[in-house]
Structures are given as C-alpha cells and as structure tokens.
Amino acid sequence: CVAWGQSHYQTFDGTNYDFHGLCNYNLVQDCVDNSFAVQTRSIPCTGLVSCPRNVTIFIGESLKVKFEPPQLVRVNGALVTVPYSGNGVSIGSHGNHLYFSCGLGFRVKWDGQSSVYVTVEKTKMNKLCGLCGSYDNQPNNDFTTSTSTVVTSAATFGNSWKANEYGESCPDVADRSSACQPNSSLVATAQQVCSKIYSDAFKACHPLVAAEDYYHWCLEDVCSCNASNSSVCACNALTEYSRKCVRLGARNLSWRTPDFCPKQCSSGMIFNECASMCPLTCTRRASNSSQCNSDCYDGCECPPNKVLHDSSCIDVASCPCVHNKLNYMPGAVLKQDCNNCTCKDGLWECTKKTCDSTCSSLRGGNFITFDKLRYKFHGNCEYYLAQDLDKKFTVTIKIYPCGLHDLSTCTESLKIKLSNDTFILKKNQTVMVNNQLVTLPYFTEAVTVKSATASLISFHAKIGLELTWNGDSSTYVTVSSAFYDKTRGLCGIFNGNQNDDYTTLEDNVESSPIQFANTWKVDSACQDVDPSVTAPDPCQVSLQRKVPAENMCSIIKNGDAFTPCHSVVNPDYYYDNCLSAVCSCSNQDCLCPALAEYARECSIKGMLLDWRNASNCIKQCPVGQVYNECGSSCDRTCAEIASDLDVCSNKCTAGCSCPSGTVLNNNNTCVIPAECPCSHQGITYEPGSRRNSTCSSCLCSGGRWICSDIDCDNLCPNNQVYSNCTTLCDPTCENFDHECVASSVCTEGCKCPAGLVLNEDTKTCVNRSACPCHDGGKHYLPGEVIQRDCNNCTCIGKKWSCTKKDCAGICSATGDPHYATYDGLRYTFSGKCSYVLSKPCNNNNFEITVENIPCGVSGSTCTKAVTISIGNMTIHLMRGRLITIDGVEISLPKIQNNVTILKAGLFVIVKSSLGFSVMWDGALRVYVRLSPDYKGLMCGLCGNFDGNGGNDLKSRNNMLESRVDDFANSWKVDESCSDVVEDINRDTCKINPHRYDWAHLKCSIINGPLFKSCHAKVDSNAFYKSCLQDACGCDYGGDCDCLCTAIAAYAQECNQKGVHVSWRSENLCPVQCTHGTEYSPCGKICSTTEQSFPDKDICGEYQCVEGCHCPEDHYFYN
C-alpha cells in the first residue's frame, strides 16, 4: 500500500484514490489481533504540491515509533540514531529512505518526505483495515469505514479513519473536484509537462505499469500547484511512477535532467533511480544476493570503480581494513599467532606458516585440542594426552573425579616419556625422573624441568615439546610445527582439521568425545565412562550455589580487570567453566584458578591483565591443609600408599601440605592413613571392605589390600588355562596394545595360553587379529564394516581401516539462531538482518542468505526467510508463504534449470546440480549440504569448509575474529542494518525468570532417557542449553515452535549419526499426518512419491528425513 504526495493513495488491492485530509489517520491497522497500527499525518505547508508526512507505528500497547522530517526517529518519545535495533524492531536507512521491520508480518518504508510504503505478508489477509483497505483481493470493498460500512466517497471513507490525539479536534474534509478545470491555462501547461510520462525516457516502464493513473495524478498536482516552475509540481507523480516500475523490474531509467526534477549528490556520488541496497564497500566487493539484485531505491551511490566508505566514495586501494572494530590503514601489519597479516585493498592478506600449537586440560574435565576443538570428559584413569606417532614423546595424564558430588575432574599426575627417560610430575611440584625423586631445577642437554612460579611446573624438551602444570587441574602441552599431523591422544591430531580430532587408538573417528576418550586409557582395566549418561550441570545439581557462582564469575564478563581482553579472547567459554568450577567446588579455592585460566589465555594473545588484586585471589591453602615455609616434601597420598612407592626424601619446601600423620585422599581431603580407600579395576572400596577374587580374599586396610588364599576348585571357561600367577597385565583384546600400569602381583586364576589374548566379550582366547573393533560403544568382529559419513571402515585386527573419500559438509542454523558450521563450530548470533549463510568466496555461482527477525523482546531472533541465488535465478523460501522462483509462486515438486525442489516429510529440499542443497522446515531450521569439491573455498556464516572449525570466524575482509558479532556483522547483506553488539551477559531465562521452570522441564527431554541411545553419538549438553535459551526467550508467541525446534535440532543430529528417536507425542510437539501417511523420525524421500527426479543423488543424500511418509510399499499419488 502506498500513500504519496499531498493526497494520493493506492490500497493493498490496487484501488487508487485521492483524499485531502490533513489530520492523523490510520493508514494500516490490524483490526483482528490489534497487533500493530501505522498512522500518517501531513505536516501543513504552503506553496508546495506536496507537504511532508509524519509516520507513527504502534506495536501493541507498549511501543511507539515515529518518523519525522528530516529522517528523525523517535522510539517511545526518545530520539534514537539509525540504524537502530531494539524492542523487537529494526530500523535502517538507504539514502533518504527509512525502513522499519519487525516480526509481526509487515514492513514500512518512508522516503523522508511524503511517500509511505507498507508491505504485509499474506498471513495478514482479511485482518487489516484503514486507508490501505481490507487486503482481501476484493477492491470493491476497499472503502470500508471504521464502522464497517462500504461507501463510495473517498472523503467519507478517509474521514472515518481519523486517529486524533487526546484532546485534538481535526475537521473532516469533503471530496474535491478536479483542479484542472476546462479552459484553464493551467491545463495546457500541465499536459505539456506531464506528457513526459509517455516519452521514451519511460519506455521501459510502459509494458510494466499503466501510465494513465499517474498521468492523471500529475495533471492534478500541476494544476493545484502554485510554484513558479510548473515542472517541479510534476516530479512527485513521475517519481512515484518511476518507483513503481522499478519495483516491477525496470532498470537503467534516466528521465531526470539538470532542468527537470534534478537530484543533487555529494561526496563524489551519482544519482540512480535504482541504487543498490547493497552498495559496494571496502569489505563488500560483489553483490549477488537476491535482495541486492531485486530491491533498490532512488538515491545516490558511488560511480563505477569506486566503493563506499564512511559515506564517501574512494578508490579500493585507499580502503582500510577492519579488525576488532578498529580500522587499519593500507599497509598496516597485524600478527596472528606466528603469521603476519597485511592490509591491502581493504582485505587482510596473511602468511600461512604452520604455527606451534597448544593443547589444554583444564579444570572440570574441559579439554581443548591442538586444533582448538573443545570438549568435556570426566574420566577416572590415566590417559594418553598426547603422543607422537614416531614415539619421540608420550604424555599421559592421570585424572579423577573431585569436587562436590564428584562433579568436577582433577589432575593427579602427569607422565612424560622421551626415548629412555620417564618424567612424572605430581602435586606440590614433586618430580620423578626414571622413578627417582629429583629436586628442581633439573637440567640435561635435552630437558629442563623447573618451578616457573611457586605453583607452576615448567617442562621443556629440545625436540619441540613444552608442558606446564599448575599442580592442580590446568595442564598445557605445546608442540612445535615439526609434529604437524603426527600426534594422537586426547589432544587430537595436530593438523588443522577438527573433524578428525576424535580419532581413537583403533584409528576410528568417534562422534562422541566420551567414546573417543575412553579408548585412550593407559590401563585398559579402568572402567569406561558411560557415554549414554549425560554429565549433570553442577549448577543444576547445587542450585543454592548457582547465584553465588554467577556473582563471583561475573568478573570475567563485567569486571574492569578482564573487559580489555574481550576483544581478543571470547570470555563465554571461560565464564561457563568458572560457573562449573565454583558450583562443584567442595571448598572456596575454585574461583581463582578458573580466573587464572582466562587470564593465561589473554596473556598469550598479548593482553596482560592485573587481575589478582581486583579479584582478591590471594593464595590460600585448601581446607584441612596448612602452609609451611619449610614443609616436608613427603606429602604422601592415599594413592601413593596403595602403590607401595617409597621414594620420598625429606626436603625443605614452601607450600601447603597435610598435617603430620595425615595423607591426601582422592577427594583432596586430609585423612589419617587408616581412612584411605583401596581401588581395584577402577572401583573404589572403603576401608574395611572385602573383595573376593578367584583364589583369594582381600581386606582393604590403610589404603592397601591384604590378601589371603582360599580354596579354588573352579574350572576355567572355554579355552583358558589355570595358572598360579595371573595379573591384571595378562593380555586381552582390550589391553594388548596398551602399556600396562596395573599391579603385577600374581594371583591364582585363569588366563590365556601364550600367544593368545582374551576376548572379554566371549571369554575365549583368540589370536590378536581376531579381536573386535569398537564404535559408538558397540563391538564389531574382524571383517565387519561400518559407514562413517561417506566412507566405509573395515575392522582388521582391532583397527579400523577406512576409505579416504572427502565427504559432504553440513551447516545448520536453528532456533535463536544457533549455527553449526561445515567444520563443526557451534555459536549463537542474534542478528536482526539478512546475512550471507554460505557462498563460494571467489565467485558468485550461488549464494544462500538468511533473514532473521526478532521473536522475543529479550533480543531473541528467528529465521524468517531463506533466499538461494543461482546465477540469475532466485529461489525464495519464506515462512507462511508459497515458494517463489524469480517472484513467481510455484507448486511442488518442481524441476527448473538443473534445480530440484520438493517437499519431503517436514522439509522443503532444494538441490542444485552445482553441488549443494538446502533443507528447510518452513520455520526455524535450515540445513545446507555441500559437495566436498568446495572444501576450503567457502565464505559466510557457515565457515570456510576446510576441516578446521578453529578458523571459521573469518570476516568478509579475511581476518580471523575472536568475537562472533564482529565476524557475523561483516556478513550482513544490507549495510543499513545496525551492527549487533552481543550482550555477553544476555541470559533469556534471567530476563524472563517466569519461563525458566517450564523451559527446564521441557528441554530436559534432551538429556533424559528418551534420547539415551543418542547420547553416545551426539553430546546433548550444548543442545539442552540452546533449548533453554530459546524456550525462555521466544516470547512473541510461538513458544512451542521455539521449544520444538530446539528438540528437533538435537533429533536431527541423532538422525545424521544413525540414531533415530521417535520423540514426538500428542503432548509434545505433535505432527498431524494426513492422506494415509504415517509419522516417522526417519523416512526415505524417494519412497513417498512416484515422481522421477533427473537428479538421482537426491535420494541417496536424503535417506532419513523426519515427517509424514507413506507406509512401506505405498507411494504418494495426486
């Protein structure tokens, strides 16, 4: 609907009329739901054919947005700057035009003068009223008054929609006769001026828009205008005609001259009737999105070979580069790790050296691999942390459950093997070399071990290995670039590819970090961590600790000491770790080490922080321990007693230790030795406990087992043989390729004959080549084959041998939205604009964009539309609308220009022969599948698809950003949208605390038993947290949409890993199937229709799609 000039209107259903009212009027109003209203008022003026208008937009009863000349914007009375984003709305500008959008299905554009454009979605049909009519495709009832009466008089209709301010009285107006009276001298002048609309200058418009109405309006304007230059009076009508035909596709119009309706531009710009909505800038060198191609405005833009920067046109060579929101001039050099990045033509050009890399094992079971993949693992054993394939070094870490309710994980010791030397690092800076206790510093030609600080041990080997440990739970292993692609273990493979970081001892790539970590046990007798059980959030278990933990850890996000680092190290990960540490802490000494982890990362990035004074982190001893300037170095532990080690020699050591006569147990508590527990095969036994083995009975006393023989008449099963000396090191399929660290004490029992190993599943003795392999917690016999992505893996002698095909990449945007890149990086970005989701970096063969709109006053946004541009073809998928190709609605299935579009289950699938496809659920879930041919060639919110999620936050100007908002803002389609500055303290459940209990109850299904079969394949914690934030934040209605999307996003990940969970019910996110179809969490798309698609690959790519499908042996017809 359009209102323009002094009195001209065009309704949604195409009725053109004149109304000369000067009051405030309801231009558009939602008369059914009362969700919004758009009002307009002409500002009195003299001597002009058209006076400017004010535009006022009401959202419910709580929000009022007002546009006033010249481009002033007020929100609830307060003047705001544009672009503006807040209160669930977005306001941007292009030239003199202001644009308003929100999530309620309408948009408003104002040209800063008299023209107002309101665009509504089809969902608003039969709901609207006002000067724009009813929007019901029936023009004959457009003059429906506010009393629901259809009239013929435009004045009577218009007067009825007055919206007077409180206390205001504004007179009605009457219908006017034509200003162009017969025999008037004005008529000839008007006809001469307005006839330009029929000239060749508008030739491109004539087939698109009938000129008669605009010619009539032009005559009226000129006849009623008292300007000295009559051509000025024609400009409004001709401008509106030009805008209408441009909206319908006309381009390259040039009807203005220096003497006829001229437009002046400054800053080196030129005027264009169709200036790009996505102007070329220093960071945007090409525009291929459909919005850029199909939508434009009449205004000023830069000439060819120039780009826009700070409202001026400049040469590309003069463009600055951006990093961390700062501009750097051409030639500037920044350092990223060991590489230098130089600013050239507005882009960063970086060297590509392989840098040294660090792996971290942090408090609370948090691990960061060499390739910067983050995961949690709460183990209770000794594990291979990092190992060189050439066996130049091996680093193992011994960890155990600790903290309140054993919800945290602590480090007991570290072991480093170099050639023939073994170094063991224990708490309190105790170091053993080849089983001999040494004092620090310790030097050889190849190794240096020293106290870096009072609590930090530093280990350095000349081969290119460094290790630091704070004696508690923060361990850092750094390897030089010489070990690129040569490491294995919990630290992953150092090769820049996060996708293979979960490579197991059997050369299998697990999807679950727990399954992966279990395989790297040093002692195969240790009990595996159950991957199907989701580790509880310590702050959920100890709710009374949650608020104090948030208050203490908030210094990371809000404290002056840490905020300078936010631009180089995102604090979210370390803040979450801090919360877990404090909530699971059994004493008061967990905050400072957690803060120290963030401070260390900041210092690596060159940001030195003075934080200890600000956080009151003064060194104190743990509860129960005492500080001595000269304490004993024989700080024995229950574990040392159990191991019968006797290597302690008293030396004067400053630090904390247990009081005399007590030792440190596994819970870091000082106890008398008599209270020490014992352990056997990973199970802990309290003092005084007994256990019976095959031929003996053992008593736990003072941390040691005291065993006595008993009669043993049991026969050995299968082909095992009885022996007087069996040990935990006897070879089995589980341990034959592990170093044995178990006790070698002999006991009577059954064992395998020499040369054979025990298959513990069948209790039979087999050759090593007959041992099974493992994947996802399941056992596979030699010769069995599993599929991992697009590769087949065959079990051969306990090792998986896999084909080496490059597989397709999958990127997703779900919910708020939460993004997962092709390379597995997960992040959340609540941008309220259109963004490039994915495109090739170096060409415009295709581009996929997403439009996000507010769906909650707390700042939550949701995906409203997906646009796919392929060459000159544009496919538009918008919620609540039919799919369009180049603006034309289509029915499905559809095949056009080597693109297949079909409906499958809950999804619409668009597949292109260019090697990509898009799957959209019509609401809040978008998945992009990409051919491996595009590896390393992609740009956008989905990352670069090079296998390394650690470098996915690369901005449009080719710089790796640490903040998600800096990265994502650079991929805006429309520069007029405001940049989003992520509120790092934003917690939708705190903003809407009344929604938390409901959200927690519903979202807990993800961590619950219903999805237990998937927990070993897909970590559920991240999806639970996303669900919680979406369910709390989605408060524009559609609560269940946001909740169901979050759960469905996890179910989809499970489907991709081969675990199909039927989770929907009548009471939870039901799906109603019709026409004989049946719901399935995993249905094949090519069994649901008899349509034969030329692209046969689509059937293979989408063999598992949730939704309604025909029963087996049935096809969907007609």
Briefly summarize what is shown.
The chain has 1118 residues and is of the alpha+beta class. Helices cover 15% and strands 31% of the residues.
Your description of this structure?
With 1118 residues, the protein is of the alpha+beta class. It has 19 helices and 74 strands. The longest helix has 18 residues, at 230-247. The model is unreliable at 645-655 and 1088-1092 (pLDDT under 50). Keywords: Disulfide bond, Glycoprotein, Repeat. This is VWFD domain-containing protein. Residues 1-171, 357-527, 809-978 form the VWFD domain. InterPro entries: Mucin_vWF_Thrombospondin_sf, Ser_inhib-like_sf, TIL_dom, VWF/SSPO/ZAN-like_Cys-rich_dom, VWF_dom, VWF_type-D.
What are the salient characteristics of this protein?
1118 residues; alpha+beta; Laminin; elongated; VWF_dom
